[in-house]
Amino acid sequence: MPTYRITSPDGKAFDVTAPDGASQDQVLEYAKSQWKKGSAPAVPMADVEDPGVGQSMLIGAGRTFDRIGKGMEQIYYGATGQTDKQAALKQQAEDEDGIYKRLQDKRPFATGFGEAAPSMVLPAGGSATLIGNVGRMMAAGALPEALQYGDTTDRIKRSTKAALASAAVPLSVAGFKSAKSLVEPLYSGGRNAIAGRTLNRVAGDDAAQVIQRLQNAKPLVPGSMPTAAQVAENGGIAALERSAAAANPTDYTARAMGQSSARLNVLRNLAGDDTTMAAAESARKTASKALYDQADVGMAPVDTYFKGLQMRPQFKSAIDRAQKLAKDNGLDDIFFRDKDGKPLAVIGEGAHYIKKALDDFADQGSDAYIGKASAGAASKTNELFQKWLDSSIPEYGAAKAAYAARSAPINQMQVGRALMDKAQPALADFGALGRETGATFGTAMRNADQVAARATGMKGATMANVLDTAQLRSVENVAKDLARKANAQDLGRGVGSDTFQKLSMQNIAEQSGMPKAVGGLLDFPGVSRATGWIYRDSDEQMQKLLADVLLDPAKAAEVMQKATPKQLAKDPALRKLLEQSVIRGGGLLGTTYLAQP
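Predicted structure:
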């Protein structure tokens, strides 16, 4: 379809597009007939070629940018008094309008959407308030229309319609959500949704991680079921649970007492009772007594090894002390001697007294303790002596092994009792239920090896070599369980709020998109009284629901996840992008249909 440039007698230039097959004379005759009207529209043409939806959208977008450019020229020419250029620009715009109209008639939706697309240069959504989002959408829709070519009245008309069309989207969404929020407190599904949104709101940006922690929650101690706050690791959840516990003390007190009882039971089982301890001690004595009796009457020859030990002053002092201990216990001499009084052998019972004397020298708490350095030397000397004694009197070594084997459960109970004393306050002996001294127990676990050594009376004892793997894990889990209880209490000590008391009102305010404004309106005395009467029972039901949910981490995770689309729960950035896309798409559709001249 050729286009011809024709100049009229008064000097005006016209572009005339003719259908294929039209002669130049036909085009010229048609143009002359239109000169008297001051314009030369195109010769009636055949139907325009269809470029398709995508291309039509691009053409529409390009037209908007072109019209904005012409709008800037129009303002400039008007401001500088260039009327001739202004008139030429007007003619050019009208000619292009005639050409574009044919495509517009063919593809009204695609071209309209393309024309509105340049408004995307301004961000939509993302504001903290409904007013902010409406303002952004209005500016995004109105600005391109206000800048396009046209007279002042035309620009105002187009930009006003575009602004209203764009604002309708966030306003409609907010209106729907507000209407829905009015009835949500009145039915079970709505109350669950409000509970989920409340938990998500107080959890803040950490909501997705909180849901994961709640889903993975497990008891660290058998019978100590955690609450949502104890596993969420979130200040908002902890504060809300603190309010729930204050409003529903019975259930939360029962849970706290159950947790405390479960933790103390772990330690009680480890500590055993007096009957269990007595039975273990009796079994140890029975297993080792016969062997010790044989060892007591046995004899270890005073050989070169023993004489070498006698060269040590500490060992000589231990022999002197052993002689005294022997006489105190009815044994006149620890040695078997020849007729001249020369020691030939150490009597087994006497050897045991030598060991005890060396133990006293090494024991920091005994009267015989002789200083840190000397105590270390005494321990080494004792090791060498007992090695000699085990080989010299085999029954003695066997008795020690039997004694040690039967001592393991006794030592474990001793450690259990020491830890029990640290975890359970003295008032528990007089009926104080659910009381624990978590900080004291934590200190004991920090100094676990010292506690084990003191409890068993064995210098080299450690918590790890006294307790078996399962026992060690169980006491460590008691400490971890106490720690997460303390963590939840500390996180929940922030400034309180009335969120828990006014769940219905809070939901209406939040869903409106203007929480402060609507919240203030709902607090007006008359409004507050009316809504309080309407939602009184619903609020009580939701408070009970939230209190129950916070006692069950799995349930809390479920209602939170249902209140947040599952596929977007872990990607708040994607969620925000989609929200803005919905707002923007709605705005473009509205502008397409309503913002046309």
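Summary: The two ends are 29 Å apart (CA to CA).
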